[in-house]
């Protein structure tokens, strides 16, 4: 059997937390796992002023990501070296170094270079809604999707190494019915929503698009430890910090994926095997 590998492509340190259960399972089964991060989250929150300053936040968050990855057994972490663009409509959007202002050809090329060097069987990234519409999330989805196809084409980016074709591209997100249930629970508990003013029927994966539902309940505590390494982003009053353990298990014990390109799934493929038929 050819060596298997997975490359998770995201925009900021902590974005990878939606797939850490699957990544951990891959590690335990001898699958090479890598994480690509487009930015270092330079304009994110600082939960505790003793942890970072606006000037040092990017460097601090890089190390947080490396530690979070190490918790689940991932050593290969790559950065595309763009700057965090901030939330939609924020002043950081105008920074010429921001990921959303990158030249598309160049951004795809940086991803292609990583893909051809790492040679992943599967690529995973955000769905088209970017989870909740963050501009950088939308960008990494768009450009990782293009890079999936470009990496296999020897006529594109010849300077980025020999062509390599990943087998499948998956989008990962919560299903919309799960998002709705989660939002209802938060409202009942008077916990601030992480996606205020965002229409719930326009974020995450439509349930009918989900091709794989992966039970990762056995890794929930490890997932929580991994998330805990992103200390600058975890205010004591934040939504994730307020969730009791039983709800952590309920909402973070399942990960949803949609196959969007590549080798079709066998008709009898298990709904928790993203490699089925390869």
Task: Tell me what the structure shows.
The chain is of the alpha/beta class and 278 residues long. It has one domain (5-262): LmbE-like (Rossmann fold). It has helices spanning 20-28, 57-71, 104-118, 130-133, 135-150, 176-188, 220-228, 239-242, 245-252; strands at 5-10, 32-39, 76-82, 122-126, 168-173, 212-215, 254-262. It is globular and about 50 Å long. It starts with a strand and ends in a 16-residue tail after the last strand. The model has no long low-confidence stretch (mean pLDDT 92).
Number of helices: 9
Low-confidence stretches: none
Amount of helix: 25-40%
Shape, per Cα inertia axes: globular
Quantity of strands, as a count:
7
Radius of gyration: 18 Å
For the largest beta-sheet, the strand count, sense and barrel status come to: 7 strands, mixed
- Structural class computed from helices and strand pairing: alpha/beta
What is the ordering of alpha helices and beta strands?
EHEHEHEHHEHEHHHE
Domain count: 1
- How is the largest sheet built, in terms of strand order? 3-2-1-4-5-7-6
Write a brief caption for the model.
The protein is 33% helix and 16% strand. The protein is an alpha/beta fold and 278 residues long. It has a seven-stranded mixed sheet, sandwiched between helices.
Features:
single chain; 278 residues; alpha/beta; Rossmann fold; 7-stranded mixed sheet; 9 helices
Q: What topology does this entry show?
A:
Blueprint: E1 5-10, H1 20-28, E2 32-39, H2 57-71, E3 76-82, H3 104-118, E4 122-126, H4 130-133, H5 135-150, E5 168-173, H6 176-188, E6 212-215, H7 220-228, H8 239-242, H9 245-252, E7 254-262
Helix pairs in contact: 2-7, 3-5
